[in-house]
Amino acid sequence: MAETKRPVGLLFDIGGVCVVSPFQAILDYELSKNIPPGWVNFSISRTSPHGSWHQLERGEIPMDANFFAAFNRDLRNPDLWKQFHEWLANKKDQPPPDRTPPLPEVDAEWLFWEMMRISRTPDSYMYPALKKLRASGQFVMGALSNTTKFPEGHPYTKDVSGVKSQFDFFISSAHTGLRKPDPKIYQVAIQEMDAEAKKRGFSGVNPADIVFLDDIGENLKAAKKAGIRTLKVTLGKTDEAVRELEKITGLQLLEADKARL
Q1: Over the stretch 90-124, which tens digit does the pLDDT of each residue have?
Q2: Residue 1 belongs to a domain
Q3: Which residue from 179, 189, 226, 184 is spatially nearest to 49, judged by alpha carbons?
Q4: Are 87 and 163 members of one domain?
Q5: Do residue 136 and residue 179 come from a single domain?
Q6: Fewest CB atoms less than 10 Å from the CB: which of 85, 130, 240, 250?
Q7: Rounded to the nearest 10 degrees, what angle do helices 22-32 and 108-118 cross at?
Q8: Contact 192, 167 (CB under 8 A)
């Protein structure tokens, strides 16, 4: 199926695509504490698949004091800290440092809640586009997101922004026990998209009938392997992704004042 064919389904990551990226909160924290940018993401990535963050996003552990203590330990891992500096040196084509700098102090609980807070804000480009796509009725709208389960009664359990209401279905890692880029979660998404399409009167969907938007490369690579078309959303450049969506869907999605920028 041609890449230029109009899709039946649109599948969206949430953080960094539909809402402000939690990566921005991480970067702001690192810069404010003189921590080399990239350390927190490196630690989270390199503790996969059994790190505290990954367990939380698969719904295997609750969001409690034990999680925050484990997350803090992951961010204080001396072996990972050494590997991070070797990785930085390699990126700069330099020899690794003779002595690794002291491990930084990180308030993991504060950082976590700042990430959650900032990612409650709808993206100023993508959110209006979502509403227009939803209102058009021309596409099956799905979400596929690595998420967490908030404690019962926590205000963040409510969809105050209205982002979730734009989707026909929402696949949450913490509720399915599967986390991107696990190939199984993409099969779940394809099945959900197909079922919803048939409910809506479409004949169904194949993977190539779906376009998936995400801000993390490994998640997009896994989607491609599943046969899904992909669109990378770059931090701070969601307007470019919306412009690409305009080409893909044939709809004007940018607000008139922003389309001129």
Answers
A1: 988 888 888 999 999 999 999 999 999 999 999 99
A2: no
A3: 179
A4: no
A5: yes
A6: 250
A7: 140
A8: no
Give the C-alpha separation, 71 to 43, whole Å: 10
104, part of any domain: yes
Kindly tell me if the per-residue pLDDT of 2 is higher than 50: no
Q: Can you give the residue range of the structural domain that contains 26?
A: 22-118
List, in sequence order, the alpha helices (H) in 92-136. Answer: 108-118, 126-136
Structure token digits, residue 140: 């099956």
DSSP 168: S
Question: For residue 181, is the peptide bond before it cis, meaning its omega torsion is within 30 degrees of 0?
Answer: yes
Closest C-alpha to 154, from 118, 122, 116: 116
50 and 157 share a domain? no
Q: Provide the domain count of the chain.
A: 2
Task: Find, among 173, 167, 120, 125, the residue nearest to 145 by Cα.
Answer: 173
Q: How many CB atoms lie within 10 A of CB 46?
A: 15
- Is residue 2 within 8 A of residue 209, CB to CB? The reply is no
Spatial contact of 50 and 74, defined as CB atoms under 8 Å apart: no
And the tokens for 186?
């993409």
- pLDDT score for 1: 36
Residue 12 backbone dihedrals phi, psi, to 5 degrees: -120, 135
Say if residue 108 is in the same domain as residue 187: no
The whole model's pTM is what?
0.93
| Amino acid sitting at position 168 | D
Length of the chain: 261
DSSP output for 1-37: --TTSPPSEEEE-SBTTTB--HHHHHHHHHHHTTPPT
